[in-house]
What does this fold into?
Amino acid sequence: MPTAIMGCARDVVEECGVARFVFTDFPLGNPCGKPWDIDMQRSIVGSALDLLDRAWMARTTVQTPFRWGNDMWRKAFMRVDDNKREALAREGEERRRRQAEIKAGR
Amino acid sequence: MEHLQAYRSFVSYIDRSREYYAAQGYPEPYAWAHHDDVPFAPLRKRLSECRVGLVTTAAGPEAEGTTDALQSMRPREPYAEPSDPPPARLFTDHLFWDKEATHTDDVDSFLPVNRLAEYATDGRIGSMSPRFYGVPTDYSQSRTSQHHAPQILEWCREDGVNAVLLSAL
It folds into this structure.
């Protein structure tokens, strides 16, 4: 089955290895364009259709020309720093406790 | 703007998540899928004659109201839902995307069901599949490749799909 993937996690998709990849350098969540931006969404889907049609080998990546607007998200997402370490450790403990509960069928 | 920089500009989620989960006290880093050999299927006919399907990692209507991210880690099944009328919303709260930077209130920002329908109307593609397909994120690569993917392929064949666009949140 011919496939093309639209995504924002370049390293994850390229390490996995896919036939065709349309990469947009946005925060995770909107791989097909900014919310309510019909022209941008149309362009990104159009790139995916172009790639379906024209790519001739696996691992073909194209990057769309769009920019998010600011780069704050690049450093903020999943950030680990000394102010957050304690909270993150607590989150992890809570998560493991709930996972064990789910596993036990509760 | 042209400038020089010492680091790649795009975020490495593999690096970022390794540090993040270590800080949460997980002893082993997450092992990401990696394939040395990658299959490639060429289009067998003109795009304007192809029926194109969509696959999403968002959850279907049955997950609506699931607010607990861990509850949502229970094994889920793939689903197929009508493309027309297009869904007004899909459930994404349980997935790991950047909830501070953006939102998923516009379905077409992650599942371009209206945009693809427009390309069908314009004749760029032959038609859109009458259903779109959902694949669960459950952190099991073997379930994804051995159970979920074959199920979605079967639905695509039932619907006469010739090519698929996938979008990952």
Remarks:
- Residues 1-69 of chain A form one domain.
- The beta strands of chain A are 3-7, 20-23, 60-63.
- The mean pLDDT of chain A is 93.
